Amino acid sequence: MNALAPFLIPLDVDPQAAPDPRHILKLLPRPVLIIGSDGVIIYANQASELSLNAVTGRGVSELFPSYHADLVRNGSYTTLLRSNRGDFFEAVFAPLDEQQYVIDLRPCIEAPATHPQDNFDELTGLVKRNSLLSHLSCALDGGQASSSVAIHCLDLDRFKMVNDTLGHSVGDLLLKKVADRLKAACRPDDVVARLGGDEFVVLQHDVEHTAAAETLAARMCDLIGRTYVINGNTINIGTSVGIAIGADPSIQASDLLRNGDLALYEAKKAGRGRFRIFEPGMDALLLQRREMEIDLRRALALKQFKLNYQPFVNVVTNRVDGFEALLRWEHPVNGNIPPLSFISLAEENGLIVKIGEWVMRTACIEAMSWPQESVVAVNVSPLQFKADTLLETVASALNRSGLPAHRLEIEITEGALLDDTDNVIQTLNALRNLGVKISMDDFGTGYSSLSYLQKFPFNKIKIDRSFVAGSGADSEAILRSIASLGTSLGMAITAEGVETAEQMARIRGERCTHAQGYLTGRPMSMDQIPAFLAENNLKEGAL
Ligand code: C2E
Ligand code: CA
Ligand code: CA
Fold it and tell me: What is the position in ligand 1's atom list of the atom closest to the CA of 339?
């Protein structure tokens, strides 16, 4: 029988009266896609969004590297496909019409292992996914109600950087050492698997209390995070861990792995080197994020973005020196979504590059219509450096708008300098040669901040608002030392988030050169700028 028959029936009935088959597809617990003859996904149900990260507009070959166009030319048939995450699916292809095809995907737990060595990862000797799934299915079917298993999904932090900077042979040696440390952290009957790249999974047996899983996760974070010495290189990486506990006997192996993955995602979001235990709400969170991602893909085309501008003031002259462009997303249903809620998502899926280009272009054009020649500061994401188009984007934005380069200031965070530092410095030098100013944003919140200041002569350091708001001795000492270091390096210093007159007095005392915060002006829309400037230029000295 055609496996698709149950949900294709409505199409054969009166098309006017029939319900949209997509409503039915949506409810199916397994992934179902509709693709065009060009292999582009036209529709992805929720299950495929979750398990394959399938999204409308993506090519199906991105999800299944072995997919080729011939598959859809042959009419209905069934084949085995392997996803880019390494999962196997029995794929049933069926034409909907001449232009569209349905792919019904059934996850295979037991992937075909033709040779015994297929069960082991050649590099580390750890078991591979198939074998892990068999162990997991057995453990779950074992049905010993008194003890349960835990799945720990691990992903190494900063492994890519090691690979990129020290080469693959060092990367490989590092993976072996990580495998050894993981085995050392576990008991002999636990199963340690490598799923590929820097992804590992540990199956822990006999987990009587959540605390047992937490103890193991903490031990792994600690062991993996200790320094490695490989070929004379000192290497520091870390790991994040997502835990899923299989206490419920009805849970499937693939669900448990997926839950572990969801928890891993949350662990990474909370910061590096942490672990999180799966909670049911995480599904909903991910779904929400997927929905937001779909909306975000359309937001540029639908002109839902706009820029607000927040003034920064020179505390020596008391004049408005310029405005920072801050991105706003006016969502038609959810209202205004703050940038902190969607920028990390846009960075994850690469949309930030297109959005960043739009911000750069728009900020330059809008600054040209201001009544005075103030500077416009634009935030640039680390991902825009990686895309290698930043220089071109900036040069073309200046060209098209006619904005003189000295009126543009680019704000970067330490994140941009973490990976591939040499390339980033090269781009920064090229930007500086155009005449653009470069600021170091959110200073003090990141890693080994001070060393970055010596790598590039920034025009300005922006001290994060946590140090300005903090009244403790620590904040004060940090504020003072950053300000004096910046001053000695000839850099301007902006204090961010200045809200009160006391804070203003303090930052002046510490010799900050600029202030940006609610006290001197909140972010405002483009058309409020002329009035704001008129008023503040009149009452000079009052700021
Ligand atoms: P940021 O670059 O540190 O921008 C300053 C943020 O602090 C803004 O939040 C601003 O509204 C807020 N702020 C300013 N003064 C005060 C104050 O006195 N008190 C308090 N409590 N907050 C103040 P916003 O607009 O929500 O932006 C948040 C972050 O989103 C920005 O932090 C920046 O990292 C990012 N962002 C904004 N626009 C863009 C953009 O176009 N591209 C990129 N890549 N990131 C952006
Ligand atoms: Ca900024
Ligand atoms: Ca900032």
Answer: 30
